[in-house]
Design goal:
This protein is an alpha+beta fold. Among the domains are: 140 residues, Gyrase A, domain 2, CATH 3.30.1360; 121 residues, Aminomethyltransferase beta-barrel domains (Elongation Factor Tu (Ef-tu), domain 3, Beta Barrel). It contains 8 helices and 19 strands. The protein has a 6-stranded mixed sheet with strand order 10-11-12-9-3-13. Helix 2 packs across helix 7. The longest helix is centred in the middle third of the chain and has 12 residues. The N and C termini lie far apart (46 Å).
Length: 398
């Protein structure tokens, strides 16, 4: 057992898949994620992205924060916490959700899994245990962080179903946002048809003791389809193409913001479609009703098409090249659509009525000297990439 007094010698934990990821990480590019060591790029970033879109990719999801929520009032508690109706989520199903503070400002978004009648798992980017426990007051519910108890993998790409079937896990009948359980290696594997790439894909959940065996099984079964381990850089390109947002990248969680004007509501992050107004009270409901009825939203989250192939990450957006009206939170050249795309926050009404004359200010490095560019930008729907194979049941036999 590790001496807790020596924690400073290993400030970052290693995931149950670390030995396999480290073996594949010939570029030795690492970063911190949620207190764990995670790979940014393993061998070839372009080929890793290509695996997501053209074959099958394997990504270590263990650092994702996971909470078990159980008890007779679990559904009622989650209805108080989140903006969606958790009580109508069927056992064996998953949905995307979000939760707010009392002012109706986003704390985080994530996925909610219903394991049983009175048991759920909530997965998210940031840690929220004090908030979750405070919200649980008065409910017959138990809340516990179980991040270290579950090893998680993301298997994404058009060939991902073929890989699972070849590994002995029949997922042909599994629909999007549904789960299935399989016996594996003396334990139990849960497979959900979920992911963060906007493509056909699955997430796999298993006890840490069986993690390496699962990795080896998938790599062996996926060899004919060119399965490849990937890092965060390739995944980030795919998630931008899918139009997905990330806490502390596209928005600041309300409890972390130092400046009052940095927080955002579900309306301002294009998440208002999730709000169930009829389920009863939930955190932030009064503030959100007032925002809806008074049309007081200041910001809007949009997708942008940008002229040229220059990276626009973090750039300022202008109207008529004069008035500052927003900024870009995530951007990439999209190999799948051959477009320079971005996710941006715009002041209203420049997201809609006044969106016809938008420009992005970019400083591009040209042989050791920066050149100022003003690039034309056009508001465009998200997702940027949305293949039919993502929803097809049974999945195509690629």
């Amino acid at each position: 057992m590790t001496d807790p007094r020596l924690h400073f010698k290993t400030p970052l934990r290693q995931t149950p898949f670390h030995s396999r990821v480290a073996e594949a990480n010939v570029l030795n590019k690492w970063a911190a994620w949620g207190g764990y060591t995670t790979a940014l790029e393993l061998s070839d970033g372009e080929m890793e992205y290509s695996a997501i879109r053209n074959s099958a990719s394997l990504y270590d999801l263990c650092p994702m924060v996971k909470y078990r929520i159980s008890g007779a009032d679990a559904g009622a508690y989650l209805n108080r916490l989140t903006i969606r109706n958790a009580a109508i989520l069927a056992v064996g199903s998953v949905h995307y959700t979000a939760w707010c503070d009392d002012e109706g400002k986003l704390l985080d978004d994530g996925t909610l899994f219903r394991w049983a009648d009175t048991e759920y798992m909530l997965c998210c980017q940031e840690r929220h245990l004090p908030w979750l426990l405070d919200t649980a007051a008065g409910f017959d519910v138990a809340v516990a962080e179980i991040t270290e108890e579950i090893a998680a993998l993301s298997l994404q790409g058009p060939c991902s179903a073929s890989v699972l079937n070849a590994a002995g896990f029949d997922v042909k009948a599994l629909k999007p946002f549904r789960m299935a359980r399989f016996a594996f290696d003396g334990g139990e594997l849960t497979v959900s048809r979920t992911g963060f790439t906007g493509d056909l894909g699955y997430e796999l959940w298993i006890a840490p003791d069986h993690a390496v065996s699962l990795w080896d099984k998938l790599m062996e079964a996926g060899a004919p389809w060119g399965i490849r381990p990937i890092g965060t850089h390739a995944l980030d390109t795919a998630r931008i193409e899918a139009g997905f947002i990330v806490a502390n990248a596209d928005f600041i969680p309300a409890h972390q913001a130092l400046r009052e004007d940095r927080v955002r509501s579900p309306f301002e992050m294009a998440l208002d479609w999730m709000i169930d107004w009829d389920k009863g009270h939930f955190n932030g409901r009064r503030a959100l009703v007032a925002e809806r009825n008074g049309s007081t939203s200041k910001w809007a989250l949009v997708g942008l098409d940008i002229d040229s192939n220059v990276s626009t990450e973090g750039s300022i957006i202008y109207h008529d090249k004069k008035r500052e009206v927003g900024h870009i939170t995530a951007a990439t050249w999209s190999p799948a659509t051959k477009r320079n795309i971005a996710i941006a926050q715009l002041l209203r009404p420049y997201h809609d009525q006044k969106s016809d004359n938008l420009w992005v200010e970019v400083y591009a490095l040209r042989e050791l000297q920066y050149a100022k560019l003003m690039l034309r930008a056009k508001v465009t729907p998200r997702p940027f990439f949305n293949p039919a194979r993502r929803r097809a049941t049974p999945p195509g036999n690629y």
